[in-house]
Write a structure and sequence with these properties.
This protein is of the alpha+beta class and about 50 residues long. It has one helix and three strands, in the order αβββ.
Length: about 50
């Protein structure tokens, strides 16, 4: 489960850095559910499936 969360966090970071103005090295406040991960940025809300 921890490895899937790390992969999801990396995927969210890649997506966020494509669309957000501020480039980040890591994301805070990622919300995990049983099947997905969510993060809210300045421009959009992002989600990826676990």
């Amino acid at each position: 489960m921890k490895a899937r969360r790390k992969r999801a966090a990396k995927a969210l970071l890649d997506i966020a850095n494509d669309y957000e103005v501020k480039q980040r090295k890591f994301l805070r406040n990622i919300r995990f559910t049983e099947t997905s991960a969510h993060w809210s940025g300045q421009a959009h809300d992002y989600s990826v499936a676990l």
